[in-house]
Specification:
Number of helices of chain A: 14
Largest sheet of chain A: 4 strands, antiparallel
Largest interface: A-B, 63 and 56 residues
Number of domains of chain B: 3
Structural class of chain B: alpha+beta
CATH superfamily of the largest domain in chain A: Butyryl-CoA Dehydrogenase, subunit A, domain 3
Helix content of chain A: 40-55%
Strand content of chain A: 5-15%
CATH class of the largest domain in chain B: Mainly Alpha
CATH superfamily of the largest domain in chain B: Butyryl-CoA Dehydrogenase, subunit A, domain 3
Low-confidence stretches of chain A: none
Number of domains of chain A: 3
Distance between the termini of chain A: 51 Å
Distance between the termini of chain B: 49 Å
Shape of chain B: globular
Order of helices and strands of chain A: HHHHHHEHEEEEEEHHEEHHHHH
CATH topology of the largest domain in chain A: Butyryl-CoA Dehydrogenase, subunit A, domain 3
CATH architecture of the largest domain in chain B: Up-down Bundle
Low-confidence stretches of chain B: none
Helix content of chain B: 40-55%
Shape of chain A: globular
Mean pLDDT of chain A: 95
Oligomer: heterodimer
Strand content of chain B: 5-15%
Structural class of chain A: alpha+beta
CATH architecture of the largest domain in chain A: Up-down Bundle
Radius of gyration of chain A: 21 Å
CATH class of the largest domain in chain A: Mainly Alpha
Number of strands of chain A: 9
């Protein structure tokens, strides 16, 4: 019997460690997530069901230590050249169960990339934050706070908007930053985040990249307020809310890298985020394949399994073809993230554009083909017990995180056609 | 000009009473539903059920087709098709699930009480349920499905979920894990397209919701349509009188479905009018790129907004065009003909494919506001997709199209 493991993976660059991690994650999802996920939507506010599996994976298994150096209690993956392929394997397995959970998992590490990757490792900050992630069996959520009420994805559009719209300010006062502002929608907020990387401006309205600052803030610092979680169409495990900073004081050395470099390496964040989104889509498609396979075997049409009908076969083939293609694209993205020596730095606008292109292409393909698969399942396509509709809702949201589809299109056109005005 | 009048429709074909009804419903749903949904969200007991009562009982949608002598409005000429669209478009603009419910009721009324096909005995038996009560009468259908479990009789390539056996002056119905089109948990009356033991011709049998032997499973969770609390049903030797059989043969079912699809197409049009209002507000007020550029003035986003408007206009025209087809049987054939049924099926599928894509695009433009419940758009997206699933498998519906247009025999 065919399984999801029969879909192609680029075996020539998947290490044994990836398979080991994959099997650990699959066992965790089978035991801790899949049996409960149909009730996640109603759990968006409290995470009574969602939190325990996170605690096991990130805290008790210790996965949240991954990026930290071994001498600080971590696994040292931050400076490896197989981080992203390994991440792809993990992301795909989690998303097979719940892409909201996969996103929340990924974002635990995302803000830490500013300080844990070569050539911009910030040892002092790693030492500062290591106890939060490596010295505990409790889960520590992190968040990357970018979006603001007035600008939506303008902040992600660094190359053109150049930070001019950022309204969260960081003002130096002696040996401290004083932060004031309001952020919306960061993953892992709504009360969860213990550590936040906050995108600020040190000079409001400036288009000088040196004035874009990424500064870490702990949730228990005076002046930090997290609002309640938003109610959304899906992705309940990805908790989002408002975050307010009112005269929050942090040490100057809490700035991620430094003037100019915070903005420069922001591109790295964009590239890796887009790679993650493709992995999450790929994972959800694996599960849809499993559920649809069960459906077309169980359901009969004119006395034969539904899958034996030629018209149905055409659609099923399209779906399998999409999985094949999207998975190959996703692994290629992960490989491009790992091998700077071959593909250039992750913060390069060309690489950012390519990741955007591959992400929005795969989401568009997912939405089209999964919508058609839902239709094939008739009333059961919209039935939560069959899980497909959950993935359909969740992935639509992945199309819009980290900048809308139109932002992706603009960045892709700008780079590939050397446009200058948008 | 009212924003909704921007999108063309054959206004000259509507009676003054249709326009008045649409205007009344527009005001009602805005006050009763749209103004309250931020607070009440999709709460069935507090928002949706009372709203259904207003629409069906106070406005009188559940009395529309029945003769005056039976307590109805006797609006049962073919031109009522325009009324259905004008009304359900407004209801769908507020909540597709409520329009979905109303479409069931109106389709059953049309199938039984249209003047050209008036079924006197059935109308006399059934209409009091619609005309005399003070509560909405919730109607649901059990229709053939393409894909079924083992041992289900076939009709036109689809599986019949319930089997009926005639014994004297009684029908006995049996079926397990039966999935109705809506409101399995609440419906007062089920219209069941049954396989008849020992015969090739199915029967459409009306089954009251409180008849012994009819069991309801637990309400299941689904993508949208909160106004329809659905649950699977069991029919264990359910007995109804012989008169409960409304009709035998395809013509009656095609007539029912043609009118049902009309209501659903109108609901899609209404949902898209709501989508227009949401994206218009967004496009008028959102500033992007930090240069004071209004969202709708950006060439890329403005173009996509234009495409959204185009698709809304086309769906509205399609819905009204189906009304035209049903309103003019002399020109297009009876609603129970295969030709009209096929046209209705094509239009409703096209309307929902377009509606799904249009709302997808709108969500893309609004990014996180598109999927935040606060902005209301996502509920239309979920509802549209759910209706589309309940229409049946599109891959196999295409066989119905082929059967008519190409004379396909074996599909």
């Amino acid at each position: 019997m065919r399984t999801i493991d029969d879909f192609t993976r680029p075996l020539e660059y998947i290490s044994p460690m990836c398979d080991l991690l994959g099997s650990i994650f699959r066992e965790w999802t089978e035991k801790e997530v899949i049996p409960y996920r149909r009730r996640f939507d109603e759990d968006y506010l409290e995470h009574h069901l969602i939190h325990p599996p996170f605690k096991k994976l990130l805290g008790e298994y210790g996965i949240q230590r991954m990026l930290f150096p071994e001498d600080l209690g971590g696994w040292g993956l931050g400076t490896s050249n197989y981080l992203y392929v390994a991440a792809y394997c993990m992301f795909e397995e989690i998303a097979r169960a719940d892409s909201g959970m996969a996103m929340a998992f990924g974002v635990v590490f995302w803000p830490l990339l500013f300080i844990s990757l070569e050539p911009h490792v910030n040892r002092r900050l790693l030492e500062e934050f290591a106890p939060m992630f490596c010295g505990t069996n409790e889960v520590t959520f992190a968040a990357l706070c970018m979006t603001e009420p007035q600008g939506g994805s303008d902040i992600e559009n660094v190359e053109i908007v150049k930070g001019t719209t950022i309204q969260t300010t960081a003002v130096q006062d002696g040996d401290e930053w004083v932060i004031n502002g309001h952020k919306l929608w960061p993953t892992n907020t709504g009360g969860l985040a213990r550590l936040m990387a906050v995108v600020c401006t040190t000079n409001p309205g400036s288009d000088d990249p040196r004035d874009i600052a990424v500064i870490y803030v702990k949730d228990d610092m005076p002046g930090v307020t997290q609002g309640p979680p938003y109610d959304k169409a899906g992705m309940a495990a990805d908790m989002n809310g408002d975050v307010w900073y009112e005269n929050v004081r942090v040490p100057l050395w809490y700035r991620a890298i430094g003037p100019g470099d915070d903005a420069k390496y922001f591109g790295e964040i964009m590239s890796t985020g887009n790679m993650g989104i493709i992995a999450w889509i790929s994972g959800t498609m694996m599960n849809i394949y499993e559920r649809v396979s069960e459906y077309v075997n169980r359901k009969k049409y004119r006395g034969k399994p539904l899958k034996e009908n030629d018209a149905v076969a055409g659609l099923l083939a399209d779906f399998a073809t999409h999985i094949e293609a999207i998975r190959i694209i996703g692994y290629q993205c992960a490989r491009m993230c790992d091998r700077h020596d071959l593909y250039g730095p992750l913060w390069d606008p060309g690489l950012v554009a390519k990741m955007r292109a591959q992400r929005y292409f795969t989401v568009d393909r997912f939405i089209d083909i999964t919508g058609r698969v839902m239709n094939l399942m008739e009333a059961y396509g919209a039935d939560r017990d069959w899980d497909v509709e959950k993935h359909w809702r969740d992935v639509k949201m992945l199309q819009m995180v980290e900048g809308s589809k139109q932002l992706c299109q603009i960045e892709v056109a700008r780079w590939f056609y050397e446009a200058e005005t948008y | 000009m009212n924003d909704l009048e921007l999108f063309p429709y054959p206004k000259h074909r509507l009676q003054a009473t249709d326009l008045d009804l649409a205007a009344s419903l527009k005001g009602l749903v805005e006050k009763q539903i749209m103004d309250k949904r931020l607070e009440l969200k999709e709460d069935y007991e507090q928002l949706l059920k009372p709203s259904l009562g207003k629409l069906m009982v106070e406005i009188g949608l559940q009395r529309m087709f029945w003769p005056e002598k039976l307590g109805g409005e006797e609006h049962n000429e073919p031109g009522a098709a325009y009324t259905v669209v004008a009304a359900l478009e407004q209801v769908g603009r507020a909540d597709i699930g409520l329009a979905f419910q109303a479409a069931h009721s109106l389709a059953l009324q049309a199938a039984l009480a249209l003047e050209a096909n008036y079924m006197e005995q059935q109308c006399a038996a059934i209409s009091p349920l619609f005309c005399e009560g003070t509560q909405p009468l919730i109607v649901s259908f059990i229709l053939p499905a393409f894909a079924e479990e083992e041992g289900v009789p076939e009709w036109r390539g689809k599986g019949l979920q319930v089997k009926a056996r005639r014994s004297g002056d009684t029908w006995e119905l049996n079926g397990a894990k039966v999935r109705p089109t809506c409101s399995g948990a609440d419906a007062d009356l089920f219209g069941v397209w049954c396989a008849v033991e020992g015969e090739n011709e199915p029967a459409f049998i009306l089954v009251p919701g409180d008849v012994p032997g009819l069991t309801r499973g637990e309400e299941f969770l689904k993508t949208g349509l909160a106004a329809s609390r659905n649950a699977d049903l069991g029919f264990a030797s359910v007995k109804v009188p012989a008169s409960a059989c409304a009709w035998r043969g395809d013509e009656g079912l095609y007539r029912l479905l043609s009118w049902y699809y009309l209501g659903l197409a109108a609901a899609a049009s209404g949902a898209l009018l709501a989508t227009y209002e949401i994206i218009k507000e967004w496009g008028d007020n959102r500033v992007i790129k930090g240069r004071g550029q209004i969202f709708k003035e950006n060439p890329l986003t403005g173009a996509l907004m234009g495409e959204i408007a185009k698709d809304i206009a086309v769906v509205r025209l399609l819905a009204y065009n189906l009304a035209e087809i049903l309103a003019e049987p002399g020109a297009y054939g009876d609603a129970g003909s295969l030709a009209v049924f096929t046209s209705a099926l094509i239009i409703v599928h096209q309307a929902y494919v377009a509606a799904e894509n249009t709302i997808h695009h709108t969500m893309e433009l609004m990014a996180s506001a598109g999927y935040a419940k606060e902005w209301q758009l996502e509920r239309y997206w979920r509802d549209v997709k759910t209706v589309q699933c309940y229409l049946g498998a599109y891959e196999l519906a295409k066989h119905d199209f082929a059967r008519w247009f190409y004379g396909t025999k074996t599909l």
